[in-house]
Amino acid sequence: MSLNGIASATFAARAAFPAKTCYQLYGPSESFSALLRKEITPDLYTPATTAPSKTAKYIGQNLAAQALTYVKQIKAAVPEFLYELGSQISRKEFLTTKGIFRLPGGLKQIQLLEKKIELPNADVKGLLSEVEDSRVLTGLLKVYIKNLPQPIINSSELNEFERALDNDETFMQLAMIMPDMHLNVLRYILRILRAIAARKKVNEMNAE
């Protein structure tokens, strides 16, 4: 699933998980937001469906093959590259960028940044922190997600997810059957999109 698809789904869902829907897995006292707090063990054994580039460490690599970073906010591990990229996108000065995901970044800049981060011994965090145009970072995130050997949400399940957006319990049930690492990544991206939507009056990226 592309980032555009995830963004549309997230914004349509009001950019945050509803707080009052209960799900039987967590018991009557727990809420839908428990999904964000759930401790999840990374699925390290999901095979890639397509062979990634022999030289690429990030773009085109299966999620399970990438180095992981534990993210305290979601109590789960995500690919280290995704974490660093998301951290830069979430900088305060970038969250207020108008159309941060809607408007494209410079293609040549995105391609150059992609080449630099894939170089041996590249300082990924340093390279990402030097980017001054937030749309270059969001453009690189779109490239990263688009080139995953396995989509975050399988195409066969995508329609079900879209239909479930107005039914909180069904949406959560679908999320719970996703591979753990895919769910971790989805949750992390949702946090980024929620932070952006919270500043909709400035960045013009609202839930509609």
UniProtKB/TrEMBL annotation:
Gene3D superfamilies: Rho GTPase activation protein. Residues 66-208 form the Rho-GAP domain. One of its GO terms (molecular function) is GTPase activator activity. Keywords: GTPase activation. CDD domains: RhoGAP. SUPFAM superfamilies: GTPase activation domain, GAP. GO terms for biological process: signal transduction. One of its GO terms (cellular component) is cytoplasm. This is Rho-GAP domain-containing protein.
